Amino acid sequence: MGGSGRDGTVGPGWLVDLEDRARAVLPEPVLRYIGEGARDEVTLGEATAAWREVRLLPRVLRDVREVRLGGELLGAPTRSPFGVAPMTLQRAAHPRGEVAMAEAAGEAGVPLVLSSNAGSTFAEIGATGATWWLQLYMTPEREVAARLLDEAVRHGAGAVALTVDTPVVGTRYPSPAGGRVWDVADPAWLGANLPEEGRTPDPAHRAKAMDLAPADLAWLRERSGVPVVVKGVLRGDDAADAVEAGADGVWVSNHGGRQLDQAQATARCVARVREAVGDRATVLVDGGVRSGLHAAVGLALGADAVLLGRPLFMALAADGPDGVRRALALLHDELEETMRLAGCADVGALRGVVDTGR
Hints:
Helices cover 39% and strands 12% of the residues.
């Protein structure tokens, strides 16, 4: 069920409406690429349903006249516990791509995580004034990744999210309709910050490290001087190992169902990751979140923030930065309402309103 946004938008189908309008403007291969999952798309198909399976135990007799959604995330202030997940091809959705997305995120007071394959430069993103982090794939030659990292930090990246679930790119079956996105992609849509030798369109053709180890986290932390988040963790023991190795945060993610098919839904993994790391690290989650209520569930399970990808891509395609602003405002409002109904005056109070069956 939707709600009322700050611009007066009302209705339960706000996301459906966005997607319908995005489909009218996006090239078919781009639309397929954004929406597809790995192999049989089992993980992709379970993502949103897993959030709906969780049940809440609301508190009562609580003063919820004032509800506080703001806080701090990896050292930066936020107005809502949301963020924009890394996505490539944003310039296929809007001519200004990631810059338009960053402007909307900055106005909403939430961080943007910039894909290492973005079509906008670090300088352009830094100039928006938004809080932003770099999503990084480690390369077999660490120095190649180091150059990308150095440049991002120079232009204001506040953290680096190292993606650890992609030693190779997972298989996605071709569409019966034919046509690959990389056959129609404008070279300007991607790779703006990659060295020339790394600017092949298809990410499957870019070498990625298959020997990632805990030592890489310490190296990244020392090299960058900014917080390091490990993205792509589903297991509690992996999360604990990452924090022990120096990670400041753990990002519960299955890559939007685009890597290992039949991997567990992120909604079912947040609690075990939080239990494993305790209060030693920031916990983030993405995957199938489609409402403020889903976000509340993620926070109640132990996340500090919830990140969204596909819905905001659709918002950008449908209405540009205004669409992203409206989507983030509506998510904020839905979460605020959920917190009042759950008897939680601040985001931290949501922890523990999940029915664990005890």
